[in-house]
Amino acid sequence: TYVAHSDSSVSAAMFKAIVEGFQAVEPLKIGELWALPSLLRFVLIENLRRIAVRVSRTRQMRQIANEVADRVLALDETSDRQAILSNYVAHAQDTTFATQLLYRLRDGSQNAGRALEWLEGELEESGSDAEEIIISEHRTLSSGNVTTGNIIRGLRLINDIDWTVWFEDVSRIDTLLRERTDFAALDFFSRDQYRTAIEEMARRSDRSEFRVAEKAIELAGHAAVADTNTVTDPTAHTDVGFFLVGPRRLELEKAIGYRPTVSVTIKRAFGKTGWLGIVVPVFALTVLLLVLSGNALVSLGLSIPSIVLMLALFAVPASEGALAFFNTVVSLFLKPTRLVGYDYKRGMPPEARTLVVVPSLIGSRD
Questions:
Q1: CB count, 10 Å around CB of 11?
Q2: Residues 174/231, Cβ–Cβ less than 8 Å
Q3: How large is the average pLDDT for residues 234-262?
Q4: Closest CA to 118 of 84, 94, 79
């Protein structure tokens, strides 16, 4: 609707105002906001395609009009013009065809005059006249040129805009987090990590993304108050990030009625096993490799002491192979968790500074 009313003229300020006006009634989802630039580009390209189709049809109609004019002007006095013109009754309703035919038949010859009479008669039957269709055709050409220019400028503007900055400026969720947390101080990847967590929890609960963010901030506020009243530990997990991507996420999920998928449940169960989740599978794979190797050695007819010795020597390579295989399989299903980081564009603040001490032993003065 925005592109249609603006004749494909795109303005960053106007587009932002329209999105903000819509969100005043209902906040858009994070995915919907990210999709808007691509959708806008798609609509502009679609409008350009329609203009290209119209230009192609216009050229076709002009070519047909030129062919009709050539045939009519080449007739002699005894030829039946009506037989030729009657085949183009439907074409006479097209403004491009009629305008081009009028242009070609303007020489004032007898053949041209009779063809013009036929064309004007067809136009009168459709409730139009020659002057009206010429004006309409010129108006169509002019509007097409203007629209094409607007589309090209709009596509260039879309490529020039930093949509990441635009998104964070119009997102109601980002605005909420910036106003009530230290969300603005985080780097982009950490902010995106927060947004992804909000999307995931909203998708598997009955709350909107905006309500999930509000609930996370509410829980963080309650935790901060409780920490102030009862706990003096400065490392207490009271930041909103601990509820979105940290160890207190389960509290937020319970508060919003989050329903984890089967895969998430399995991954969390595996994570709770701790070091046993690594040792047991690797040990089982190692034993399996040793058993297979032992059976192969037995089939070769080797003695028991020789088999035991070879299996003892093979135990270390087998365990390394089992560990490598386990790591490969696990990496396909479990992705590493990125630590939340701060941007610090204006330098390191005093409260975030620390002193790193590296013990060293100087062996000589040199």
A1: 14
A2: no
A3: 84
A4: 84
Question: Tens of pLDDT along 79-105?
Answer: 666 777 778 888 888 888 888 888 888
Q: What's the token pair of residue 102?
A: 């009028």
Q: How many residues does the chain have?
A: 366
3-state SS record for the chain? CHHHHCCCCCCHHHHHHHHHHHHCCCCCCHHHHHHHHHHHHHHHHHHHHHHHHHHHHHHHHHHHHHHHHHHHHCCCCCCCHHHHHHHHCCHHHCHHHHHHHHHHCCCCCHHHHHHHHHHHHHHHHCCCCHHHHHHHHHHHHHHHHHHHHHHHHHHHHHHHCCHHHHHHHHCHHHHHHHHHCCHHHECHHHHHHHHHHHHHHHHCCCCCHHHHHHHHHHHHHHHHHHHHHHCCCCCCCCCHHHHHCCCCHHHHHHHHCCCCCHHHHHHHHHHHCCCHHHHHHHHHHHHHHHHHHHHHHHHCCCCHHHHHHHHHHHHHHHHHHHHHHHHHHHHHHCCCCCCCCECCCCCCCHHHCCCCCCCCCCCCCC
Q: Give residue for tokens 């919003």.
A: 256
In the block, residue with structure tokens 């596509």: 155
CA distance 69 to 326: 80
Phi, psi for residue 78 in degrees, rounded to 5 = -90, -5
> Maximum Cα–Cα distance for the chain, whole Å?
121
Q: What whole-number distance in Å separates Cα of residue 245 and Cα of residue 336?
A: 13
Contact 41, 222 (CB under 8 A): no
Q: pLDDT tens-digit profile of 113-159?
A: 778 888 888 888 878 888 888 888 888 889 888 989 999 999 999 99
The yes-or-no verdict on residue 326 having pLDDT over 50 is yes
Tell me if 8 sits within 8 A of 44, measured CB to CB: yes
Q: How many CA atoms lie within 13 A of 227 on its CB side?
A: 14
Give, in order, the Cα–Cα distances in Å from 306 to each of 155, 208, 297, 298, 299. 75, 67, 9, 10, 13
The tens digit of pLDDT for each residue in 27-61 reads 899 999 999 999 999 999 999 999 999 999 999 99
